[in-house]
Design brief:
Length: 262
């Protein structure tokens, strides 16, 4: 029971910090909305109608949802570096709770915040002509949370190995932007150059973006946003299983790394 209380306390603290930092909320929405309305509208006329009868803005909309969730959860690991620099982490590590509870609390905090950000992006669906039913939204919520938890734990893992905020931010940018741009968030996954096709398939973010797009746009077997591995077109559940496997490994590594903190 004490461990659960510790997880809850860490989770609740991260949510409070987010809620009281309104500039962070506004700033985190600005970047994806710029991509959606400026980048999407600018290229929509040139791209024409894509597979399934969607224009380019509608096509990238699920990718923007995934990008928002991924970026927010990944960057939330900076709170670990912040707490270390200001001495709070040392107090947490000597508290009568396990370090696994601290790692899980941090992961759940970042996943919850990122999922809330993704829900806010859902509100813009009517502006770009995407119809989301209640069932679709309910299906998206666990997908967004799984993506957020997977990359939130990845961010926590890296944060336990990095000692300064400057180094963390540089590392995040070096990893995050290639993963986003090579996830299929902004382009169909068919007909890619071989070298890019390999990078897309080994990128864990791909398996977070693809199921969100399938739920939002539909899961047509011949859609250009479906993923094929070794000649087999992955189902929605195949993609979820791969992402869940990646997330489980990241959570275990984050717990292990927290256990080795000094």
């Amino acid at each position: 029971m004490n461990q659960l209380r510790g997880v809850y306390t860490i989770w609740y603290r991260d949510l409070l910090r987010f809620w009281h930092d309104r500039l962070r909320l506004i700033g985190s929405l600005t970047f994806p909305l710029l991509f959606l309305f400026v980048f999407g509208s600018g290229l929509s006329a040139r791209m024409g109608v894509l597979d399934g009868g969607f224009d380019f803005t509608q096509f990238i909309y699920p990718g923007i949802i995934g990008m928002t969730v991924l970026m927010t959860s990944f960057m939330s690991g900076i709170s670990v570096v912040w707490d270390r620099e200001f001495g709070f982490l040392k107090e947490v590590l000597v508290a009568p709770i396990s370090r696994a509870a601290v790692a899980i609390g941090k992961t759940l905090g970042s996943a919850t915040i990122a999922s809330l950000q993704g829900i806010l992006i859902l509100a813009f669906a009517p502006l770009i002509g995407v119809s989301l039913s209640i069932g679709t939204v309910l299906a998206l919520l666990p997908l967004m949370f799984l993506l957020a938890a997977s990359f939130g734990s990845f961010g926590v893992l890296l944060a336990t190995r990095i000692r300064s905020m400057e180094a963390f931010q540089a590392t995040m940018q070096m990893l995050m932007f290639p993963m986003i741009f090579l996830s299929g968030a902004f382009f169909p996954l068919q007909g890619l150059p071989q070298w890019m096709n390999v990078l897309v398939k080994v990128n864990p973010a791909t398996y977070g973006i693809a199921p969100i797009r399938q739920v939002v746009l539909g899961a047509s077997p011949d859609a250009t946003y479906r993923i094929s591995l070794f000649g087999h077109t992955l189902t929605l559940w195949n993609e979820i299983a791969i992402l869940a496997g990646f997330g489980a490994v990241m959570v275990l590594l984050a717990i292990w790394s927290f256990g080795n903190q000094e």
